[in-house]
Write a structure and sequence with these properties.
With 181 residues, this protein is mainly β. Helix content is 9%, strand content 31%. A four-stranded antiparallel sheet has the order 1-2-3-4, covered by helices on one side. A four-stranded antiparallel sheet has the order 5-6-7-8, with no helix packed on it.
Length: 181
């Protein structure tokens, strides 16, 4: 039953997020949005052009990537119970913790990219690895530490996997046995 409830919330979020937001193409990063609700539908407001959704395991939080332009967009945390929306990247992110040993081919941190495609590798004690396909000034999978130990999830950029060969764009999958090359 719990899975069914979570799936219902996710379907509701996906339906709401796929509504055309042409009028929402405002200034980045902050935008005031007036939301209306009725007896049948409860809207989640404050997310600009969400592209992808991923529920963080064992939490009420969903990661939503946003699209402001072809080269910029935020990452949000959306609480499916309270409907709280928090931008967690680039604003409100923890300082980068560049893992140069693991991500040797990565040129360094980047604040502005258009996130498109997201997956998560579950960790221990509320510490996970989030992989986000990024477009814009570079084509790479941006890698973050995702901490859910506090009241709101926190992202800290740790590295990137640059695109060395042609492949499907906007597609990423974390394999439990795989390590970056």
């Amino acid at each position: 039953m719990r899975i069914k409830n979570h799936l219902s919330y996710l379907l509701l979020l996906m339906t709401i997020f796929t509504v055309p937001w042409v009028a929402a193409q405002g200034s980045y990063p902050a935008q005031e949005t007036k939301c209306q609700s009725n007896a049948d539908v409860l809207f989640v407001c404050g997310v600009i052009n969400p592209e992808d959704l991923y529920q963080i395991p064992e939490t009420n939080w969903v990661i939503a990537t946003g699209r402001i332009s072809d080269s910029a967009g935020p990452i949000y945390a959306v609480n499916i119970e309270s409907h709280q929306v928090e931008e967690i990247y680039p604003h409100n992110a923890a300082l980068p913790e560049f893992d140069q040993e693991t991500y040797q081919q990565c040129p360094g941190p980047i604040l502005t990219f258009q996130p498109h495609g997201v997956t998560l590798r579950k960790g221990l004690n509320g510490e996970h690895t989030l992989y986000v396909v990024g477009h814009g000034s570079r084509e790479a999978v941006e890698v973050f530490n995702l901490s859910v130990a506090g009241d709101v999830p926190v992202l800290s950029w740790t590295g990137c996997i640059t695109r060395g060969r042609k492949g499907p764009e906007g597609l990423t999958r974390s394999l439990p046995w795989a390590r970056p090359l």
